[in-house]
Amino acid sequence: MILSVDRAGSLALQTQIYQQIREIIVSGAARRGTKLPATRTLAHALNCSRNTVIAAFRQLLAEGYLESRAGSGSFVAQVLPEDYSRPHWFEKGPSRPGRRMELSERGQSIRQQAWSPCDRYSAFIPNLPDVLEFPFELWQRLHGSIWREPPRNLALHHGAAGLASLREMVADYLRVSRKVACQPEQVIITTGTQHGLDLTARLLLDPGDRVWVEDPGYTGLRGPLRSAGAELVPVPVDAEGLCLPVAREVAPGAKMAVVTPSRQFPLGAVMSLARRTALLDFAAANSMWIVEDDYDSEFRYAGSPISALQGLDSGTRVIYIGTFSKTLF
């Protein structure tokens, strides 16, 4: 909340503070339920008396713009006075004359592709963990011990691919745990699976390129593909994973296949060795990329995790994408 006062102005400081906070609330810049700074903090920032700020807050409370909660402070009211005089408070004001702002051609294409036949499973909400079991206190202690004397070079720029030491650890971990064949310079640190797929799609796909996607499959992967202008081709899944004969029939010239071979999402099938070999052979013969989403291979009750598809690839056709989010949390 950025405020300012004009001591040479004609309005009292209390009135200036009241009007600015009210404008911030009415304009929607401060969302309903937002906690306001403490009066002491605000008075210090404005270099004025705390009683002046308290008087402005009291006026806002009296008029219904703020709510006071004992022991918690002041919050933007959930229901504002304007709600009673303006039924559609959430709608924007009258449009100004001029040309209407439109989405780009790519943006309009993404909006038009908001639904596909394989989206019919998106009503289910999977993978909701029991966060009550997470050891937050232990995590906080470990975090504090590491950051008490952090390496100073962490504050420096480390290039677009990420911190070199982290990339080395990721490569070592994947070689041991997932049988992934990679060197640190092949590892790129992203913010997650969708970010990784977005980079991959923009680099490797042209608008109109066809992409095999599992049906049913993880709907969160389709957004980055559509953003790149790709045409998604739903391919059914059987007990051995992606049905390659069907895929070859419906879209033999596909540029990419996005698969979850270690544990198909959401049905849980493991892609057989024969199916993996056939998929790799087809990709090599048809200049097709394979994106392997290895989203939760570490989660097993017994035995070692199934080796990644990438480890079998001798033609460097597989882009391996994974995340530490589920491992950590």
CATH topology of the largest domain: Aspartate Aminotransferase, domain 2
Q: What's the main sheet like?
A: 6 strands, mixed
Say how many strands there are.
8
CATH superfamily of the largest domain: Type I PLP-dependent aspartate aminotransferase-like (Major domain)
Order of helices and strands: HHHEEHHHHHEHEEHEHEEH
The share of residues in helices is 25-40%
State the helix count. 12
Structural class: alpha/beta
Low-pLDDT runs of 5+ residues are 87-92, 115-123
Order of strands across the biggest sheet? 5-4-3-6-7-8
Give the mean pLDDT: 85
Count of the domains: 2
Shape: elongated
Taking the alpha carbons of the first and last residues, their distance comes to 33 Å
Please tell me the CATH architecture of the largest domain by its name.
3-Layer(aba) Sandwich
Radius of gyration: 27 Å
Strand content: 5-15%
User: CATH top level of the largest domain?
Assistant: Alpha Beta
Please tell me about this protein's structure.
By secondary structure, this protein is an alpha/beta fold. It folds into two domains: 13-85, Arc Repressor Mutant, subunit A; 162-328, Type I PLP-dependent aspartate aminotransferase-like (Major domain) (Aspartate Aminotransferase, domain 2), CATH 3.40.640. Helices cover 35% and strands 12% of the residues. The chain has twelve helices and eight strands. It has helices at 13-26, 39-46, 50-63, 82-85, 105-112, 136-147, 164-177, 193-204, 222-227, 244-250, 273-285, 325-328; strands at residues 66-69, 73-76, 210-215, 231-238, 241-242, 256-259, 289-294, 318-322. The strands form two sheets. Strands 5-4-3-6-7-8 form a six-stranded mixed beta sheet, with helices on both faces. Strand 6 (256-259), helix 11 and strand 7 (289-294) form a beta-alpha-beta unit. Helix 1 (13-26) packs across helix 3 (50-63) and helix 2 packs across helix 3. The longest helix is centred in the first third of the chain and has 14 residues, at 13-26. Residues 87-92 and 115-123 have low confidence and may be disordered.
